């Protein structure tokens, strides 16, 4: 660390999460003496605005991490697996968002609002940031778990295409453009696929995403649950410190550019009341905003939440058949609250 501040490297600086992180960088404390932008050789030489400065993007090479204190990886798992150990060998602490190290015992999963001490674990040179789906709901669940102790969770997610990076966003726009002029499309089996059959470029999704929803997000997982569903379950159990918590997750891709949404059915060890749940979420310092007045049609939606830092909760309900359960709807910007802000907060904790 220099006397003028620490050196931060952002790997994947030209991607959606990397660009979002650079956008929120001025919001952080003034701890960074140097911000080094790293990306693939394709982006090397590009100029990017970061914290009010024009910085040039460098390619990843043997000297990319020389003098770096913290290296934030906003890059695919294969990049993190190759380059994170090199960053550690060069003396940096790595903060990774790819999920590549989720199964490593010596890599703590960190959410600074919940477990800041995890950044100081002896020997931990790689710190993992949870996936956007987990980060969107963990503040809400933690507030409720501390009071009433969670027993079961049933979660269905509605995930934005930006989770697949710029390729996901571009694919949605391309498909919507190809389908948008035809008002008859979507009326017959297979007509959407036929309409898109000549669309150039490979899709990051296993089915059309425009005019559609896809009940599968992520890799193959165990063949029955997707990799995303398995990761969310593992991350929630780890952060809530409940290894036996019963969790059922269904992750669904929807034609939304940015902002994840989810419905949560949470069951507790004891009876709960809707009013107490709303009060807990409103009063806790958990980056959660309750927007819940169905009579006035007030509830969070992705187009209203995008670009915001808090997580928004609405549709808080308690059904007569489930006296120990509450249901609610959650919305959070997957690039900001679900990725960039947590990465930056972890990085700042490391050098504090």
From TrEMBL:
InterPro entries: NAD(P)-bd_dom_sf, Semialdehyde_DH_NAD-bd, Semialdhyde_DH_dimer_dom. The keyword Membrane does not apply. It is an enzyme of class 1 (oxidoreductase). GO terms for molecular function: aspartate-semialdehyde dehydrogenase activity; NAD binding; protein dimerization activity. Gene3D superfamilies: Dihydrodipicolinate Reductase, domain 2 (3.30.360.10), NAD(P)-binding Rossmann-like Domain (3.40.50.720). Residues 7-122 form the Semialdehyde dehydrogenase NAD-binding domain. The keyword Oxidoreductase applies. One of its GO terms (biological process) is amino acid biosynthetic process. It comes from the Bacteria. Its EC number is 1.2.1.11. SMART domains: Semialdhyde_dh. Keywords: Oxidoreductase. Pfam families: Semialdhyde_dh (PF01118), Semialdhyde_dhC (PF02774). Belongs to the aspartate-semialdehyde dehydrogenase family. This is Aspartate-semialdehyde dehydrogenase. It comes from Allobranchiibius huperziae.
């Amino acid at each position: 660390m220099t006397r003028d501040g620490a050196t931060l490297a952002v790997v994947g600086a030209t991607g959606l999460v990397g660009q979002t992180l650079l956008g929120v960088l001025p919001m952080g404390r003034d701890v960074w003496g140097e911000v080094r932008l790293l990306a693939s050789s394709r982006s090397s030489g590009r100029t990017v605005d970061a914290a009010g400065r024009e910085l040039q993007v460098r390619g990843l090479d043997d000297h990319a991490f020389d003098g770096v204190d913290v290296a934030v990886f906003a890059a695919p798992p294969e990049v993190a697996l190759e380059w994170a150990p090199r960053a550690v060998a060069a003396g940096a602490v790595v903060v990774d968002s790819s999920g590549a190290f989720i199964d490593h015992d010596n890599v703590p999963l960190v959410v600074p609002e919940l477990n800041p001490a995890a950044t100081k674990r002896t020997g931990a040179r790689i710190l993992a940031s949870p996936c956007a789906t987990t980060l969107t709901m963990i503040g809400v669940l933690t507030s409720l778990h501390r009071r009433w102790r969670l027993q079961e969770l049933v979660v269905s997610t509605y995930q934005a295409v930006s989770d697949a990076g710029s390729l996901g966003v571009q694919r949605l726009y391309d498909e919507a453009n190809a389908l948008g002029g035809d008002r008859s499309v979507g009326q017959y089996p297979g007509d959407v696929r036929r309409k898109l059959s000549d669309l150039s470029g490979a899709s990051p999704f296993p089915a059309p995403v425009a005019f559609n929803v896809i009940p599968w997000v992520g890799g193959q997982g165990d063949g029955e649950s997707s990799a995303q569903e398995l990761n969310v379950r593992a991350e929630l159990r780890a952060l809530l410190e409940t290894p036996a918590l019963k969790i059922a997750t269904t992750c669904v891709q929807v034609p939304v550019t940015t902002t994840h949404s989810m419905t949560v059915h949470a069951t507790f060890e004891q009876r709960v009341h809707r009013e107490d749940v709303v009060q807990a979420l409103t009063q806790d310092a958990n980056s959660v905003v309750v927007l819940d007045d169905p009579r006035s049609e007030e509830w969070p939606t992705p187009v209203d939440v995008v670009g915001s830092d808090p997580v928004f909760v609405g549709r808080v309900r308690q059904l007569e058949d489930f006296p120990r359960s509450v249901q609610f709807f959650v919305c959070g910007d997957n690039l900001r609250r679900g990725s960039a802000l947590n990465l930056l907060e972890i990085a700042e904790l490391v050098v504090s």
